[in-house]
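ok new one. same drill as before - structure tokens go in, u give me an amino acid for every spot. 348 of them this time. try not to just spam alanines like last time pls lmao
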């Protein structure tokens, strides 16, 4: 893996309060916010950075660096999910307008004791250059800068021995930038690397709209016929079953996968394609995705807005299983955390 130091920008806390209002302005019109001098370059010289996110009993530490896009083109960094075409187009437009990468793509690598030791030792022996509590006081985001030449060289050399990594969050950003021809100026992308012990996987709600000529009775009966352990429940109470919310009623069931096949592939084939007649969910307007929220649920709003649709929730995949996949997953099969916020570390 080829990684590089860079001269990053961070929010100037003497000029802004990192709150919901600032975050919305930055997300909606980053170029304008940046032009007001609300971000500072902490050091003119290229450096490596450490990002730490602490939230509700989970502590994630990752390395922030530029990564050569050739590592993606040469399959050293691979995508694990199909991308949604419209989102690729959107990210191309955002890259053009912003002329900046306003958050790193999350990359998952195999367990690496040497890297984790370096990062933890640095965090415990140096002060962060940025500390933000957002969106609540229990969630802390911190940035450290690594300017020591020997340490940077050691990390860069360490990454040369890594030949396999997965995109955890940022598939569309990678896809939108990798179309550049090799040799393009700044042919790299802003990334943050996590090992399995510093990352978790959740699920997306998959909201599916039936065809107008499909009846709810037939759909439910077909679902029952291809699943087992089907029952109506009062709420989502475990992560071992597939759950369905329809017309404000909750169901749970199991869907048996052929030997070696992940549940996500079975679900797409047996339910998305065969029952709802959606041949390509990357292009379909009848499939929507909604993040599950930690600590609270947005199910009430979903049930109200999509009462006549079918809201599915699949059990989250295990990190160890994801690292070993050999077939690209359907879109939004994984919801990795920590979710990296816009504007913590920026590359112009």
């Amino acid at each position: 893996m080829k990684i590089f130091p860079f001269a990053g920008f961070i929010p100037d806390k003497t000029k802004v309060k990192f709150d919901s209002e600032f975050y919305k302005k930055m997300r909606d019109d980053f170029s304008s916010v940046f032009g007001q001098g609300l971000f500072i370059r902490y050091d003119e010289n290229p450096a490596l950075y450490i990002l730490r996110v602490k939230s509700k009993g989970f502590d994630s530490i990752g390395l922030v660096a530029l990564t050569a896009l050739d590592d993606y083109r040469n399959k050293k960094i691979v995508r694990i999910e199909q991308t949604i075409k419209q989102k690729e187009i959107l990210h191309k437009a955002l890259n053009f307008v912003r002329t900046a990468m306003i958050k790193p793509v999350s990359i998952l690598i195999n367990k690496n004791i040497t890297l984790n030791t370096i990062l933890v030792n640095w965090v415990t022996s140096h002060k962060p250059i940025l500390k933000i509590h957002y969106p609540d006081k229990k969630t802390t985001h911190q940035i450290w800068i690594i300017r020591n030449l020997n340490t940077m060289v050691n990390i860069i050399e360490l990454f040369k021995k890594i030949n396999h990594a997965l995109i955890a969050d940022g598939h569309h950003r990678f896809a939108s930038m990798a179309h550049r021809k090799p040799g393009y100026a700044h042919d790299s992308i802003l990334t943050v690397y996590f090992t399995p012990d510093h990352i978790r996987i959740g699920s997306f709600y998959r909201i599916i709209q039936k065809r107008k000529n499909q009846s709810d009775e037939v759909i439910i009966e077909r679902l029952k016929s291809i699943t087992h352990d089907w029952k109506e429940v009062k709420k989502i109470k475990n992560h071992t079953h597939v759950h369905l919310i329809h017309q404000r009623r909750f169901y749970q069931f199991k869907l048996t996968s052929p030997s070696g096949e992940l549940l996500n592939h079975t679900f797409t084939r047996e339910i998305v394609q065969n029952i709802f007649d959606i041949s390509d969910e990357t292009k379909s307007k009848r499939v929507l995705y909604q993040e599950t929220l930690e600590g609270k649920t947005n199910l009430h709003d979903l049930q109200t807005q999509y009462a006549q649709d079918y809201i599915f929730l699949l059990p989250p995949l295990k990190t160890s299983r994801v690292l070993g996949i050999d077939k690209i997953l359907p879109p939004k099969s994984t919801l990795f955390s920590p979710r990296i916020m816009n504007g913590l570390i920026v590359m112009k």
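The radius of gyration is 22 Å. and btw Residues 85-98 form the longest helix (14 residues).
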